[in-house]
Design brief:
mainly alpha, 12 helices, globular
Length: about 325
Amino acid sequence: MSEPLKGILAMIAASMVWGLSPLYYKLLAEVPPLEVLSHRTLWSFVIFSLVLLAQRRLKTFFEMLADWRSLMIVGVAGLMISINWFVFILSIQIGHTVDASLGYYVFPLVAVALGYLVLGEKLDRIQRLSVVIAFAAVVVLTVGLGAAPWISLILSMSFGLYGLIKKSLTAGPVVSVTGEVFILLPLALIWLWGVNSAGWTGFVGREGGFFGADVRLSGLLVFSGFLTATPLILFSYATKRLRLSTVGLIQYVNPTLQFLVATLVFQEFFSFWHGITFAMIWVALALYTFAGWRQEKSARKAAMRASVVSTTVI
């Protein structure tokens, strides 16, 4: 099996795990979302630590934590990803998986906009048009429903800022995510102590403390660590073997599966305005993908011409 094919299979597997994860978190609907998030943080740290130990990369992890600049960046990234995880879990529990899928559809365009506004990255006309269409789609949904799609906006913005922040890190994805959950771990442990020993209820006002009291839920909470770690490791494996345009294209499997789960399995509310918004977002993503493919094709041609010129000169 060729390396690119291995990368494609790994990317498809990662996107399928992410896309079908609402089915898993729906099984934890009776557990308050902060408790689920805390267990996800705890068991993710255990899994990632074991992976780094097996790879003999713990030294790299501790070197990253010893650098104050890297520590600050990892801390802010951890805050962004924890917000993203919490809102995603909450959206499934309250029946807004459709909005979550919309957020992950919008995310690539948010990332493009942040790159343009913050990093000064250049956009061609088609890419600018795709961002404008995405913005218009959000406006249409806001006007149609009479309220902003806050879940979609928070998910796309938090994940976009997460990616932007991590651009300044030299550490690999597994090392940096281990750092993120390590920094969040004390908060997770404090919350788990509170719900199990002090009766804390959190935002939703429901009693927690399910771990150890229910075998099925305890197992599901522990497995959330594997559900977090596995797709990220597969994603890291895929990005080393595929072009970014290929990775980006396959990654749309994630929100597509979330959308199908929300509408076909959960049978969530899907209005006329949702239909218009999703159609606009899909058009924007098609334009964005085409622009990225065209840029990559031009870059390959330029590289080939440069190679021919250098060979001729030699």
